[in-house]
Amino acid sequence: MLSNPAMLPNPTRRGMLPAMTNHPETYVAIAAAAAPAFSRDGQTLFHLRGSGLPQIWSLDLATGADRQLTRHDEKVAMIRRSPADDRLVYGIDRGGDERQQLLLIDPREAAPEPCALTADPAVIHDFGAWSPDGTQIAYASNQRDEAHFDVYVQDIVSGVRRRVYQGTHIVMVSGFRSDAAQLTLLHDRGFGNMSLLLLDLASGNAHEFPAPEPCNYQSVRWASDGRTLLALTDHGGSEYMRLCRLDPDTGAVAVVYEAIERDVEAYATSSDARMLATIENDRGYATLRVGHIDDERTAVIGLPRGVVTEPTFSPDGASLAFTVAAPTKPPSLWLWRDGTAHIAWQPEPHPAPFVDLELVEWQSFDGTPIPGWLALPLTKMPPSGYPAVIWVHGGPVSQTRPNFRPDIQMLVAQGFAVLMPNVRGSSGYGRTCIQSDDVEKRLDSVTDLAHARHWLADHPAINGERIGIMGQSYGGFMVMSAITEYPELWRAAVNYYGIADFVTLLAGTGSWRSSHRAAEYGDAQSNAELFARISPIHRVDRIRAPVLIAHGSRDPRVPISESQQFVTALQERQKPVTYLTFDYAGHGFIRPDDRCRIYTAVAEFFTMHL
Q1: Whole-model pTM above 0.85?
Q2: Which 3 state secondary structure label does DSSP give 318?
Q3: 519-536 in b/e burial notation, b at 16+ Cβ within 10 A?
Q4: Which residue positions in the chain have pLDDT lower than 70?
């Protein structure tokens, strides 16, 4: 739907864009790999692969032969291999509505046929873990009440399931103990306020692991001793996430590995507990370390400088699989063995070159240093400098990192410089930074964007009169706040499914999310005055820049009514707005046709206005 089609040039007018090798639709076709999982014999690597709707593939590590195992017209969101054999549980939703269903396939079959483990499309099924013997799975589901997740254990063969824990709000399953007598659960009330629960399956009793103050937990797993837990946590007031060993019997917490002034963001241990791999976040760059768990482990060399994720050891502990992405390298599968790393699979090369990112920094209004990533086009600089776009991440507990972004590469290929700031409230720089934009400090991060714009305008390669801004989700809120708080700074703005009004957002978001989001943003009753001040819908009179707004009709996080409020308010004031809706999309545009449409629309919009 175009509410002001005159503001958007016809996408068939190719003369407004560079040659076809740089056309937006060519960036949609770039494939990526994710979620590697070894087969039980270690000879095959199951993984997700695709360019918009990833499916499950198998890769023979000896021959390089690959095979597509699923062919859904939906995105496969996750895979988990059974510890007993090679059967795979995976999840899909419908059109991005996030109401995930669980399915099972057996890759040993010549033509694997999916078997539905759950079949209630109105309900979320959040997979947790296989039982150690591969006969059962555990997951969280909001079937009883959409706002609350309970925990279920289900027999794989019979399909019989039983509710083992009744939860409140967001509860997630971490894993079974080695004797299948206990489950670990996480109760997530919001950033910095999580509880680790140990559920006895025989009695149904759950007790909380003691913590002196609210903290975070990630990647909680039972250790090989069957008694202690390994987890990434800031337990004990740590500024950064550390890999720790937790003793449920005594409540003791011992640090296994910490990186000075860096988050440890992922880890893997071999089945015999002799080998350890950790990934730490160095200002956005990932550092992978592999070695004996009791020795000083050195960083793996020879990897692209970017982001490393999803480490997993082979069953014999001799190899480690992981994914690597960098600004010029789409997500690929890598293997480490005997101290060296090599590519196991990578996408076909793109016909046009990609641009690397430069790590930059500037000071905000109060002297706070704000880091960001700058990309400059490879084309000849115009006499007045490149037009530029500031891209704002969502979250807000998130971080723009030097990974591969086809949308950013597309913009740079059109001749736009792109600056991606990590304003206050971003993750990756410690708990204090994350909490520095909470509640009444919300607009300080918007002021950070104004200072990002000032820094960018002073850059010798940039045309300071032609700077736009774009963002998605919470980043869309930041965009609309930037153009209402500092309207004189922006030449054009793009908002993907951003927040218009925090009151209507908390009332309209998925009911299972409302309390979690209120912990970050504030409460509609007690923070009514604050919400009235910071919700950009109340200041649309101040907007000067033309705006492109895009939203999916099935978005469960930010309802489409948020964008509709903006569009109506702008049209009533006769301010230039273009509105694109996507009928089978959720909180993001992942289907190839949708991505082609939005990429082209954004390129044309910025070409016209910048």
Answers
A1: yes
A2: coil
A3: bbbbebeebeebbeebbb
A4: 1-21
